[in-house]
Specification:
3-stranded antiparallel beta sheet; transcription; single chain
């Protein structure tokens, strides 16, 4: 058996299923198009830069900046210049976004319960550790 191919298929399927649920949860706020950016911002405690955000979302810088502009216009984020870098901005979640984050917590808990049904906390932790290792081992900075 070629385990790496099966792992790749399972990760792809699990990722797609999780993101279908997240996208659905965000759609009630008309944020389905930007759910991954918002989910990532929530995970980053609401403050980051576009260059940091690009490490976690699959988008080009122009597409990301377009999405950030939409989110700013809708009142979910604010952008401010970084003090010592004219080319970089800091992204801040607004109070409007924080209200949505709190209300989405119940949906996220439901998604987690469904995803981890039959998987105890130790197994969840081991899964997380192994995924972190897998990502580290396959990071672009490593040569093969």
């Amino acid at each position: 058996m070629d385990i790496i191919k099966d792992i790749s298929l399972q990760l792809t399927a699990a990722n797609a299923a999780l993101h279908r649920h997240f996208k659905s949860a965000f759609s009630q706020y008309d944020l389905a198009e930007h759910y991954l950016i918002m989910l990532t911002l929530f995970r980053m405690d609401g403050t980051t830069t576009p260059s940091e955000l690009l490490k976690y979302v699959t988008a080009s810088l122009p597409d990301l900046m377009s999405s950030l502009s939409d989110l700013k216009t809708a009142g979910y984020i604010e952008l401010a210049q970084v003090y010592n870098d004219r080319d970089e901005q800091t992204i801040y979640l607004t109070g409007k976004a924080e209200v949505i984050e709190r209300s989405l917590n119940a949906a996220v808990k439901e998604i987690a319960q469904a995803a981890f049904a039959g998987i105890d906390e130790d197994e969840q932790f081991n899964l997380w550790i192994n995924l972190v290792r897998l990502n580290h081992n396959l990071s672009p900075s490593r040569e093969y």
